[in-house]
Amino acid sequence: MSEAVYGEEVMGRITHGLLRLSTAMRSQAWSWAESAGLTPTQGEILVLLMQGKTALRLGEIARQTALTAATTSDAVSTLESKGLVEKRRAVDDGRALAVKLTPKGRTAAKRAALWPNFLQSAASSLPIEEQGALYRSLLKMIRELEVKAHIPAHRMCLSCEHFEPLADLGKETKAARKTTRRTRSAAPVHHCNALLIDYPDTGVRLDCHAWDLGSEAKQKKNWKIFVQPV
Ligand code: SF4
């Protein structure tokens, strides 16, 4: 396909590059799913249930996977017929149903979580500073897509009440601050007030069990500090 379809400017080239990655992801996801007798959507739901650790309602599965209610319901019914998930009464509402993995489903979910390994392998070929810069750019793009409602919100540090970005730099000089930012892909520049840990940009979480939605003011502050140029 001609690059001109997406334009010759850098935005067009980035879009083209991301679309090539999505082609690789689709191809690898289908390849894995066919070998497991599932669809990529079913595999994604299994991994989601494994990550969540608790039973999830159909509506929550649909929200987190950005699938329609009908597609989610069909996929879960198929997984149930294969003995990979089971439905039970939701703990917080006896009238609602929640979906959880069976032991067989947990084994399948562990295998499903491995199909993106090819991406991990490609990313690991980058120098460590580039890995940090790439992850930082991805976090920014994910947040931008969240704000525009193109993808569901994540339980990520950037929107969390407990996140203290660049926490250990408060008393440092401007020069020291600049130096630390250069190494922020490796240096522990952020702090979590819930887990009491310090971590670098590469430690910022995308899906955290201890996440608490920050107030609007807190989210704005997190974002303002995080996006300061490196
Ligand atoms: S590690 Fe978890 S609890 Fe801590 S700031 Fe990040 S999302 Fe929030």
Automatic annotation (TrEMBL):
Superkingdom of the organism of origin: Bacteria
Protein's recorded name: MarR family transcriptional regulator
InterPro entries linked to this entry: ArsR-like_HTH (IPR011991), HTH_MarR-typ (IPR000835), MarR/SlyA-like (IPR039422), WH-like_DNA-bd_sf (IPR036388), WH_DNA-bd_sf (IPR036390)
Organism taxonomic ancestry: Bacteria, Pseudomonadati, Pseudomonadota, Betaproteobacteria, Burkholderiales
Domain HTH marR-type positions: 11-143
